[in-house]
# Entry
Amino acid sequence: MRLSYREALNQAMSEEMARDPSVFLMGEEVGHYQGAYKVSQGMLERFGERRVIDTPIAECGFVGVGVGAAMVGLRPIVELMTFNFSLVAIDQVINNAAKVRQMSGGQFKVPIVIRGAGGAAHQLGAQHSQSLESMYTYCPGLKVVMPATPADAKGLLKTAIRDDDPVVFIEGELLYGMQGEVPEGEHLIPLGRGEVKREGSDCTIVAWSKMVHLALAAAEELERKHDLSVEVVDPRTIKPLDEEIILRSVAKTHRCVVVEEGWSFNGVGAEIAHRVQRGVFDELDAPIERVTSLDVPMPYALHLEDLVAPTVPKVVAAVRRTLYLDGGK
Amino acid sequence: MAHPVRGAIALPGPDDPALATYRVLDERGVADPARVPEVAPAEWLRMYRGMVVIRTMDERLMAMQRQGRIGFYGEARGQEAAVIGSAAALGPDDWIFPALREAGAGIFRGLPLTAYVAQIMGNAHDPGKGRQMPCHEGTRASKFVTMSSCIATQLPHATGMAWAAKIRGDKTVVAAYLGDGATSESDFHVAMNFAGVFRVPVVFVCQNNQWAISTPSTAQTAAPTIAIKGRAYGIEGVRVDGNDLPAVHRVMRDAVEKARSGGGPTLIEALTYRLGAHTSSDDPSRYRDERVTDEWKARDPISRMRNWLLSQGLLDAAGDEKLRADVDAEVRDAIAAEEGVEGPPVHSLIEDVFAEVPRFLEDELAEMTGSGS
# Structure
């Protein structure tokens, strides 16, 4: 079935809510307004006000309320309008959701999904354009999922809802309208299992969420214009990370570029680069390259925004550097 | 929906229960007979005993902290009536989210003293597996949730748990404790707001002990009382003398009944005083006038209750002595049983971070300990 990323997410939530009465959705504008990005379209009508709940505007409030409800066995899906606003709830996410199980000696579990849009869209400035996955993956106790396609969005969200741990589920803000084939019904993708999105032999690009599509575009250009064969690996979940699929690919191509929308310092790419050099050091024929955003808050002006974010030419250049083309530049 | 107390009691002075301080016992323990709630004699004695348990274990454990036998302790001295009077109004299926000074509430409803001591020792018997600092006890079986060190974050959880009860249509009530300092936190406000908007069965019990470490409650808020803050959220606020066990019990019982019957949340302010230090890491003589503390010692909640019980013939001196001796022995036995018990096993380090121990954690632990696991 061909669905948009947004419809795939809606289908995942709706199927899980139909299957399990303990699942419910809450957040700002999720009900009557059908979601800020229309992900919850039709769900209020179908499931009623007790299970699709419009909340007051207070992220720490509804994330905290979700944690409490989860502690007694409900499975809340908490929608954040965007992950930028998750910072208002950060204490509830990191000090509470992530730690309740451990701090209680395993007596309380928090099966909550905290989901919403992440990454930059277009010209939304510093407080609407952030990629915060490195922050959440840094903290023990959270699983972090970042689907790139409608099929992955559905399969991973369904698994996340059934998971007994808190899951930070970051959707690509620019991906909601993207169309793709989505398996019907019981489509479950295990957390911690990546996917090769494109096979190749000269260089591996590791990318997730929206950056998968940038990597695929770069791979195509590299093939078309430069006759290079590039493999694109999408870990899909950042934590737990499918290290094996990355190492296997790099062992084959001997080169690695990590593309992420976040900033460079302490980025997820730094961790992946470390794991690659530790795991397959002898297989590497070139230093691992990273493509990230420039280490500044995102500007609004269009030409500056384009400079800050990863782009296809930047990825192409990075891949060519690993092959010592262009004089190594 | 009117609070039952409102109709039943003529309050002196300002007639708003959020501004007046509701009292049953005066400072000598003489009751206003019209205000004494109906409670079985054995239950009064059980509550009195609960207060004595708190006092006894606090004294013993503070002494142990001074001797270096435990790392940290936070006592509830002077606040025993606020803790027990409120907890005793809850049913066995109701939940408690404590703040720092409500261990006695957990013990009162079945958290074993040995588990409490084990938590403080961080030994292998600790239900929390040696992971949290002392005074962060909790067991699911006693419906007493382990505390978060971040002030007030338990309040949205309590609202959420009460919300779960509403979604499921069961009759559970959730009690959430906080201190006066917590009322400045955003979590307090969102918890109150959500509870008001969704009318969930939660009772917030603020123990206003007048000190947040060295910050007096007058520097915490410009509001005349804490109870009055409920009004901004459409929640009834009631202020009660927190050193008066029958008064706390009555106000809490009304709030719990109201919550259980669908009448929504209540904010109770129990006005009391922190007789001791904030914790074992603190010395209040450096920042407050301890003559005021002495004045509050004269309002000791245990003495007041004892005097009332004696005056009612519910307790005699010999019975009191025996009760105290029994409690003392119980506390000593619990400490003796737990001190020296070995710590949790090394592998427990990586357990409960996730539902299942992920392979990457097994690998990391093996790497760090230089062994396979």
Chain A has a mean pLDDT of 96. Residues 195-328 of chain A form a domain with the Rossmann fold fold (CATH 3.40.50.920). Chain A touches chain B through 46 residues (CB under 8 Å).
